[in-house]
Design brief:
This protein is mainly α and 685 residues long. The chain is built from 19 helices and 8 strands. It has 3 domains: 3-291, no CATH class; 316-380, no CATH class; 400-684, 2-Layer Sandwich (Heat Shock Protein 90), CATH 3.30.565.10. It is flat, with a radius of gyration of 33 Å.
């Protein structure tokens, strides 16, 4: 009886000691990596950025200057130092880091070819910049695997600072392109497009990093981003994208960018120093844990062995009496009491489970009292059930958040594939996959809502009711069956726009599922005295009076979600969203057969639209016909007005060639990409 606990304690001591020693080894490896690869890779990145800028200038002027040659020599020396540092790091390089180092080594091996193409006049300005960008991308990927600090908060802050560093590299790319373009005062369409991508990437990286930084590290960045220098720089970015030409005042651009870059570098150095101080504290804590686990833990094991041998014999006799009393409690009385408590009966614990009367040492008496305490825990059975439900809800939330992140990455990949694809058939398949992924994201958000949390998508500006309806229809599989009647102008507060879109999508999907596939679903809206009403009407078989009453009760006063009632999962989501924002939802029989769902948006959620919404156009197949194998859709119909492209839309013809269909879907995916980037910015805000 005593041997097993002693062996377990010894094993636990060895396990804890191994963990703490492992943390110490990880700190040692992290320090080695920083002093070797970390230092040299930082210098390598600086030299590559400088060579990229000078190479872009050389391609523009068609002159190979002595300054470029000297910079290439400095880059070569930095590459040599980096390779020596990798060798010196030795066993500190893990498997993941080794793969990143091999990829970077392959990219560095391409430098001679890149330079030869530049010297021979075979590279364009943008082509040369992109070649250097590939090398620097491999270097940034290496940075992502370089941090191995065994402390989650510090690792998260280090990752956020690394994201800030990636944004700094994007700024350097902008500078290389614009500085070279200032020489001949021209920018090609491809260069303007590349610069626009740089700007979008920079905005995204800054937003993501700021959201991950803690208050101490975020304050300097917030001060810089809110200052006049950065505002002037951002304004210049927008003008370049809008005009497609380098800035008129090249000197002002250079000075502003230099000020912003210098301040970013200064803040980055200061932030790294703060993080290094925190890492030092973590290292001290790890060393303390090693001492405790190694020294104090060993003493505890030895003391436990001595005490156990001393009192083992005396306790064995006393435990025999306790054993019989405990078996009677555990096998007979306590199960009966717990079962009655679960059934909701009133139980007098003192009368049904009196204390166990045993004699012996203090330890035995304490154990007996502990068994008596077990009897009282049965009263808390109902509380335990509630805790169980909360635990299940948390599991739903965690799984849904992970799924949401994966689906966001999948949508990003699909955007990239759509940008690279011009074949109409391939675009159709990618569009269907994109639509399917969007629906999957809505289902993941449904789990988040049922868990009591918010999905996370929020708009800062009002969104028109028509755009919300179109966005909801776009998230439904049979969207071609849904038609939108004329809707008067109206806008919803951006904080409730995403939830209202989800609510309407669930109702529209129910209408498509529970109605014949050859019937249409009608959606209409109107301004009423209490707010804005939206109606969704199908041509199904309808429900009985009792069923409508039950559903309306669920929508008015949503009960706690029951895992066994998964058939009404969508209605539970609708009820939770309606309760959150004070929206009234009711269902009743349609006079034409089927079901009519009415959604009343209260006045407190309504806002003034930034511009009048356009007249609705049907989001469906026209006359049952398809053009080049693709369903006809209204371009950017489901985007909020502030997200739509500024250029006018060409009229839709009755017949399109494959080339026209390809252009149509290319424009659609560009609008979708801009909408998602705006959604991410506003959701993180």
């Amino acid at each position: 009886m005593l041997l097993l606990p002693l062996l377990s304690l010894s094993a636990l001591w060895g396990f804890v000691l191994n963990l703490t020693v492992g943390d110490g080894r990880a700190l040692s490896q992290a320090n080695t990596l920083y002093e070797t690869i970390g230092v040299t890779s930082t210098d390598l990145g600086t030299q590559l950025q400088a060579e990229r800028a000078r190479s872009a200038m050389a391609v523009t002027t068609r002159k190979l200057t002595e300054d470029l040659g000297e910079q290439r020599a400095r880059t070569d020396r930095s590459v040599t130092a980096f390779h020596k540092a990798v060798t010196k790091a030795g066993d500190a390089v893990g498997t993941d880091l080794r793969g990143s180092l091999d990829a970077l080594g392959a990219e560095l091996g391409r430098l001679s070819g890149i330079r030869a193409d530049i010297d021979g006049g075979q590279s364009s300005r943008l082509g040369a910049i992109n070649e250097y960008n590939r090398v620097l991308d491999s270097l940034l990927h290496l940075y992502d695997h370089l941090s191995t600090v065994p402390d989650l908060p510090i690792f998260q802050q280090a990752s956020a600072l690394q994201t800030m560093g990636s944004a700094r590299e994007i700024i350097a790319r902008e500078n290389a392109l614009v500085s070279a373009a200032l020489v001949d005062r021209t920018m090609t369409d491809a260069e303007v497009a590349a610069f626009a991508e740089y700007v979008s990437a920079r905005v995204f990286l800054h937003a993501r990093a700021r959201s991950a930084l803690d208050a101490t590290l975020r304050v300097p960045y917030d001060k810089l981003f809110g200052g006049p220098e950065f505002a002037s720089y951002a304004l210049a970015e927008g003008r370049i994208v809008a005009t497609g030409a380098p800035p008129d005042d090249g000197r002002r651009w250079t000075e502003t960018l230099a000020e912003v870059s210098t301040e970013l570098d200064r803040i980055g150095v200061a932030s790294n120093e703060i993080l290094a101080a925190r890492s030092a504290d973590v290292a001290s804590s790890v060393h303390t844990r090693i001492a405790i686990a190694g020294g104090v833990g060993l003493l505890a094991v030895v003391a436990s062995i001595i005490i156990s041998v001393r009192f083992g014999r005396r306790l064995s006799g006393e435990l025999a009496g306790l054993r019989s009393a405990a078996l009677d409690l555990a096998q007979a009385r306590l199960p009966s009491i717990v079962e009655r408590l679960r059934a909701g009966e009133e139980v007098d614990v003192r009368a049904e489970a009196p204390p166990i009367n045993v004699s012996g040492s203090t330890e035995i008496v304490d154990v007996a009292r502990s068994f008596g305490t077990v009897q009282r825990t049965a009263v808390q059975a109902a509380v335990g059930q509630a805790n169980l439900r909360r635990g299940v809800a948390q599991v739903f939330l965690n799984l849904a958040r992970r799924k949401q992140g994966l689906l966001h990455r999948q949508l990003t990949l699909l955007d990239g594939m759509q940008r690279r694809t011009h074949d109409p058939d391939s675009l159709e398949e990618l569009f269907r996959l994109d639509h399917l992924t969007t629906r999957m994201r809505r289902h993941a958000e449904g789990l988040i809502i049922l868990s009591g949390a918010a999905p996370g998508r929020v708009w800062r500006r009002p969104v028109s009711a028509l755009d919300i309806v179109r966005a909801a229809i776009a998230e439904v599989e049979d969207y071609t069956r849904v038609s939108v009647d004329t809707m008067p102008p109206g806008a919803v507060d951006g904080t409730a726009a995403a939830d209202l879109t989800h609510l309407l999508a669930e109702l529209v999907e129910n209408a498509t599922i529970y109605s014949p596939p050859d019937t249409a679903i009608e959606v209409r809206g109107d301004t009423v005295s209490n707010g804005y009403a939206i109606e969704i009407e199908d041509r199904g078989l309808g429900l009985t009076t009792d069923e409508y009453a039950a559903y309306n009760k669920l929508l008015t006063d949503p009960p706690e979600f029951d895992l066994a009632d998964s058939d009404r999962l969508g209605l539970f989501v609708v009820a939770r969203l309606a309760e959150r924002h004070g929206i009234q939802v009711m269902m009743r029989a349609s006079p034409f057969g089927g079901t009519l769902a009415i959604v009343l948006i209260p006045r407190k959620l309504l806002a003034e639209a930034e511009q009048p919404p356009p007249q609705p156009r049907p989001l469906a197949v026209v006359n049952g016909e398809f053009h080049a194998g693709l369903p006809r859709r209204v371009r950017q119909a489901n985007l909020a007005p502030q997200l739509k492209a500024p250029e006018p839309e060409p009229p839709v013809s009755e017949e399109r060639s494959p080339e026209e269909a390809r252009d149509l879907f290319s424009a659609f995916q560009r609008g979708t990409r801009r909408a998602r980037e705006e959604s991410n910015d506003e959701g993180e805000a």
